[in-house]
Amino acid sequence: MYLPILVLGFYSFNQSPYSATWQGFTLDWYYKLFSDERILSALKNSLIVAFCAVGISAVLGTLMAVGLARYQFLGKNLYRGISYLPLIIPDIAIAVATLVFLAAFAIPLSLWTIIAAHIVFCLAYIGVVVSSRLTNLDPNLEEAALDLGATPIQAFIQVLLPQLTPAIIAGCLLAFVLSLDDFLIASFTSGSGSNTLPIEIFSRIRTGVQPDVNALSVILITVSAIVAFIAEFIRAFDNNK
């Protein structure tokens, strides 16, 4: 399964501009990436989208998970099911639905429409991770804080939130990777001049895979793997405490 990735990494160091033949080891393609204005612009857009989407989703996803775990209200089960639908709905369906919604309200496509679309699935992933942590917490701690004179907000900030922090961080890291790697939803909701890194990669491989695209893909895979590993490590460590 990982053989294609290894081959991709191998040819990213190929001196030849053609991937089919090996002509020697070089790092020139990696140097070329960091002087490519289009790549740097796409990277900047991807980071803006990821940080904004994850930041907003972290707040909303945490509040959603706490509300579903701690409170009873009419339509709770229905709301829970709808909230986690992005986890099972195909990306193409989310992309088309978002595009149709934006077109219906005549909202111009831009970097902010990509962020709005990414919040949809980032929110669900963070909510799931935080919810799994909430099931292992003792609600008596919050009740004790309230009995000792704390307000509900103080109990949330000083008692519940510190216990949820590892899960929130793990959820944010997972959502960051998903946002950074997303191509399908971003391609449907991006406007002119708002290409993200996956979109830029796809636009370049239409004319054939070049070593600089190989190098860019290797960097993207490596960063995503490191962030995903850290998120999983934090989540596993938190669940074993």
Taking Cα atoms only, what radius of gyration do you get, to the nearest Å?
Answer: 21 Å
> Which structural class should the secondary elements be placed in?
mainly alpha
Topology as a string of helices (H) and strands (E)? HHHHHHHHHHH
Strand content: under 5%
Helix content: over 70%
How is the main sheet built? none
Overall body shape: elongated
User: In terms of per-residue confidence, which ranges show pLDDT below 50 for 5 or more consecutive residues?
Assistant: none
The chain-level mean pLDDT equals 85
Distance between the termini: 33 Å
Give the number of DSSP strands.
Answer: 0
How many helical stretches?
A: 11
What does this molecule look like?
This protein has 11 helices and no strands. It is elongated. It has helices at residues 3-11, 28-33, 37-70, 76-83, 91-104, 111-134, 140-147, 152-181, 184-189, 197-205, 211-239. The mean pLDDT is 85. With 241 residues, the chain is mainly alpha-helical. It comes from Nodularia spumigena UHCC 0060. InterPro entries: Bact_Polyamine_Transport, MetI-like, MetI-like_sf.
Give a short summary of the structure.
This protein is an all-alpha fold. The protein contains eleven helices and no strands.
Topology:
Layout: H1 3-11, H2 28-33, H3 37-70, H4 76-83, H5 91-104, H6 111-134, H7 140-147, H8 152-181, H9 184-189, H10 197-205, H11 211-239
Helix pairs in contact: 1-11, 3-6, 3-8, 3-10, 6-8, 7-8, 8-11
Keywords: Cell membrane, Membrane, Transmembrane, Transmembrane helix, Transport
Pfam family, one: BPD_transp_1
Subcellular location: Cell membrane
